[in-house]
Amino acid sequence: MQKPAPRQFNSQGEIHWQKPSLGRYKCNVDASFSHVLNRVRFGMCVRDEEGRFVLTKIEWMTPLLNVDLEEALDLLSALRRIHDLQPGSVDFEFDFKTVVDSFYGSKSDVFNYSAVINDCRLLFASDLAT
């Protein structure tokens, strides 16, 4: 997993998706939270170097948990899907700052959160780190 590159904006201030480098894939991960429905939606898509979709997935999870824990679980779900697909070199892109900081750091405060982050690190190190 690489630290995110600076975002590219067009003249209207909109963010532009950037293709991965030659020979790599890009996995975009996002989540949305509904307090009314008491659930979270997790979505991911993987595209190749030409921007073609290789994999998409949407999951709904209940109940709604702590946001940081949900986002860590979303990363873990994405890593598992990528691990199963084994597409080769993958760049991950998401806006889960707390999760990214925890992934690269060594401390987190909530036990369940720490366990999920450790699972993410182990799965990533097993064969996704390139």
Helices, strands, pairings?
Blueprint: E1 8-9, E2 15-16, E3 25-34, E4 39-47, E5 53-61, H1 67-85, E6 90-93, H2 97-104, H3 111-127
Parallel strand pairs: 3-6
Antiparallel strand pairs: 1-2, 3-4, 4-5
List the keywords.
alpha+beta; Nucleotidyltransferase, domain 5; four-stranded mixed beta sheet; two-stranded antiparallel sheet; 6 strands; 28% strand; nucleic acid binding; RNase_H-like_EbsB-rel; RNase H type-1 domain-containing protein
How would you describe what is shown here?
The protein is of the alpha+beta class and 130 residues long. It has one domain (18-127): Ribonuclease H-like superfamily/Ribonuclease H (Nucleotidyltransferase, domain 5), CATH 3.30.420. Helices cover 34% and strands 28% of the residues. It is built from three helices and six strands; from the N terminus they run E-E-E-E-E-H-E-H-H. It has a four-stranded mixed beta sheet with strand order 5-4-3-6, with helices on one face. Strands 1-2 form a two-stranded antiparallel ribbon. A hairpin with a 4-residue loop joins strand 3 (25-34) and strand 4. The radius of gyration is 15 Å and the shape is globular.
**What does the average pLDDT come to?**
79
Count of individual beta strands: 6
Q: What's the CATH class label?
A: Alpha Beta
Task: Give the strand content.
Answer: 25-35%
Low-pLDDT residue spans: none
